[in-house]
Amino acid sequence: MSRYSPDRERGASGVLVAVMMLVLIGAGALAVDAGQIYAERAQLQNGADGAALAVAQVCHKATCTQAQADSLAAELLNANANDGASALSGSVEMDVAGQWTVRTTTRDGTSGAGFLSQMFASALDAPPATVGAYAVAGAAPLGAASGFPLALSNTCWNLTTASDTATVQKISYKPGGTCTGPSGTEIPGGWGWLDQDAPCRAASTLGSNELGSDPGNNPPAGCSAILAEWRATILAGGEVKVPFPVFDDATNNGQNGKFNIIGYATFKIWGWKFGNNHDYEFRNTSSDPGMTTDLACSAGQDRCIIGQFVKFESIDSTTGGPGGGANLGTVQIRLVQ
Question: Residue 275 to residues 191, 279, 282, 290: CA-CA distances in angstroms?
């Protein structure tokens, strides 16, 4: 038998510490690096979403070049990165009609490297990480909407020149002349008031038959507050753009009147006359700013709105959704992927 010597265990703790350091570094790498990758991925996705929506909005309104789309996307991608730098992967994809795809990858804001720097796992000789994201935005005509309870005829008015320089028109109730109503129906041509589902608001969908809520000249009750908001916006130098449902056919009379909705057109309103009081009349005479004798709507029983049909790209300002309606210049822009 030999005497036990503690020197025989000398150095064992060093081995344990070395092994545990590897475990601790690995656990730290998993916690810290995974968090960094997750945060980077979230920034890139936010940037891709915003860039795709912005490119869709700009390129739908006015045809843009590849260079313009790429420049706008890169600007939005960088603005959504904490270090102010991310990389547009390739170019904005515009080969699918009505859709725009933006892809992005990591770019370090200090070194410009295409990977995440200062990774904890580099202590274990792990390779740097590259993170990416993409988003697809699309523009499609509205299939449903909820708004001011008025529907317009597609045969009485020029809806094809939707632009900021479109002809200013006077949209009249009972316009007379050749505009006597689609299909020669009994409902006066030009427009029709719709049943309301809230004060001065009506919901409509493509192909739906919306009942005329008031066969007379005056609009449904409850619109005074809406018109006061329109007036205040215009007087403050702003613009009032209202998407109206458009019908191609109307049947029956009065309270039983029905309208077949085919799409939505946005009217930039200059003035109106829906009645004979303060809120229901605004800039409707020939002496008002921008008005002419032809545009004036001032006689006692005249009813009209004055303005121009414009393109309108909505992200969240209309209540409704995309559908297969006629493209009358009003679309909803949304993320497809």
Answer: 15, 8, 10, 21
Contact between 169 and 157 under an 8 Å Cβ cutoff? The reply is: yes
Spatial CB neighbours of 216, under 8 Å, sequence gap ≥ 6: none
**High-pLDDT (> 90) share of the chain, %:** 11
pTM for the full predicted model: 0.71
Q: DSSP character for 181?
A: -
Contacts of 275 (CB under 8 A, 6+ apart): 217, 218, 219, 281, 303
Q: Which two tokens stand for residue 135?
A: 């988003």
Dist CA 234 CA 219 (whole Å): 21
Axis crossing angle, helix 66-79 with helix 34-61, rounded to the nearest 10: 140
Residue 208 CB contacts under 8 Å (≥ 6 apart), including other chains: 260, 261
The two tokens of residue 132 are 């990416």
Q: What is the mean pLDDT of the chain?
A: 77
**Which of 126, 132, 134, 154 has its CA nearest to residue 244?**
154
Please answer whether residues 269 and 310 qualify as being in contact, where contact means their C-beta atoms are separated by less than 8 angstroms: no
Residue 128, Cβ density class (10 Å: 0-12 exposed, 13-18 middle, ≥19 buried): middle
Structure token pair of residue 136: 């697809």
